[in-house]
Structure prediction request, 334 residues.
Amino acid sequence: MNSDHDVNDHDVNDRDFDDVHGVHDVHANRAIDAETASRAVDILRSPQVGYSSVDETDSAIVPLEHVLAATPDGPLRTTILSNLGLIRMARFQLTAARADLDSAIACLREALASRDPYGSHPALSATIPNLISALHTRAEFTGEWDDLDEAIAWGREAVVRVRPGLPQRAAALASLSSALRIRYERSRYPGDLTEAIDLGRQAAADLPPDHPRLGPALSNLGSALMASGLAHEAVGAYERALDRFRAAGDRGGTARTLNNLAGALAQVGRVMEALVAYEAALEEFRALGDSRGEERVRHNLAVARVRMEPEAAHRLDGRPEAPGTPEAPAPPLM
Prediction:
């Protein structure tokens, strides 16, 4: 699954080390073997940013689920649930299995239900944008759009209740912006798009420069600006997103943003630059083995080439393009 709200772009866990220490008490009091308890502590203290295989996700899920089963309600259980939700989302990205997505949402919902996420434990508020993104993903995956409405409701609650100045609040704004833009694409209600742009701008301004959600937030903002006809501003947002994805070593985000940047460049008449960006996107998708992404970029590249002046097309590949009316480019890759 390729999405601007991918799990790899999220806050990876709630880094509440005092809670993590409690795993050892669970081991002592609930007959969890020491190896499993130690593995759970390692996962919670030093979360893995990305997972390249199902085996990697399962090696994290199994010890956390063992410890969760023996953990009573309280801060430690909430922290484990939040992390399990993210790892289940990572597994879904690899498997595209509905069961993984449903499990992720169930964990994140339980984490939020078990403790006030807006109080003295600000790290827990990271769970809110993660749940928004998971619901958003399921809405697109299944076509069950009630999930998108629920995601938007969670986002609005977070905006009101999470303390201003926290990166988690900005992350919630970014997730809410993304959900509103997708709803606009279905309903064409202008208010959703206007709000998506306003929230996206605010989130991009409030997120720290090295925050893992900044790249996706900027990319989503670019897509919202494109939908509103603000292509020149979209180019700037996509360029900033591209810098962020490259700095983070996120090749999936880089590939998708290169494709989207190319579309924006073509829209403002910078066609040669657009062709270069499309070619770079093709290279990234090939390296990732993402044939679907590669196919979409090839389509967009063909459209851009047909729109070039004939002599420019000839200079690009040594042969003139066939005449004809170009199709519309594919929408932004998410």
In short: The CA atoms of residues 158 and 172 lie 7 Å apart.
